[in-house]
């Protein structure tokens, strides 16, 4: 497949170069070019038989021009089938191996100036080999020129057929059609990457580029926020496509929640009874039915904007309708961005009527965790971290897939605490290394963690794997530096040694700021909070030393 225009142009350039090389080669090939030495007895016998067969066929043509039409010359591969090729007598070469075909070409070059080997491609893309009679050098030149032109057309046709669905994308773009989607930012980005080129490095550049290709894009998710009646109807409801379809288009399916305040637009679907029953029953997440739901929701939202379809003529361009125009080319970059991207300017602006359901992302407060031994739900991740860092320590957990998650802490310092604590627990051979609250996510010792910058690096890598953990490990394997876990090895080693020596509990500051010098009575008394306290103390001591220097 050649979905991108650049790929198509590159393929056509290569084809033109092959055509030029083929044309020049056919006019400059000398008699001895490409000859192979005949060492095997089988090759010598084969070439002699072919020479005699070709001579017999050619002599018949020259002496009796009409007799060859009904005469088939017997050969070692069965028969020469006599045909016409571009108004010239020819024979089909069927049943020969590639080595034998090379020998045949060699026989023709050495012994017959008026016989030309020609390879073309049929309608089913299978190659067809012929020997064509051409009585003059001028006619031979014309013949080979025709053959090269046919090959060029065939190759160009194959390129055009390989373009596939991009023909549809090009047509939509050239006709400046209104493109309608629901939360379609990622869909548009996918179309761009597959059929236009690599995604631009900035969101502004992407917006301006896609606006040149599709000047009119309507996002039904954004359209739901511009009308108060729709906002009231969708209040406390999911903004998903199926939810919007259920509420706004009750007559289009059998599972409506409650009717909308306006009479629904009647949508007629062409097709037989089987297709109609499929659309009536519903099939969420199937491409055709999702497109149908999007169209229904868009039509109903247009009525809320006081667009009357019965008053529009087929010649009217809905994309330039004054009531709709100010609401198109505005896409939400993500489900929790609280902004819309203006494709015409490339600028983001606050989304009207947005009700934040999730906390805003604070990148300094986020830690990336990946490589879970078993599937762990976001709630389980949040619960086990809260057991160590406190009930309100984690504001949100976003599951990337079954192997990775992003955890946002309330405080930025909790990120370093988590990474250091994880490092201590994994490097310590004691009871707490097994029985600590974080064992749910650190089970197996293969779990990795890092700051949010590492997540950016992994996502921006050229590596592409289905699971995020595999993607991360592939980035590690191909990069010179391993993905950093952002921990202080000296600090971790000191705490680890304190656990091994049995002095960790006594290294924690007492209320008066002094420390006890005796060993722990029982190492099993060590908790994650003790380790965190020692980490904090050691960091403070290290900071004081640095300031005193």
Automatic annotation (TrEMBL):
Its cofactor is a divalent metal cation. This is Uncharacterized protein. It comes from the Eukaryota. Belongs to the CAF1 family. Gene3D superfamilies: Ribonuclease H-like superfamily/Ribonuclease H.
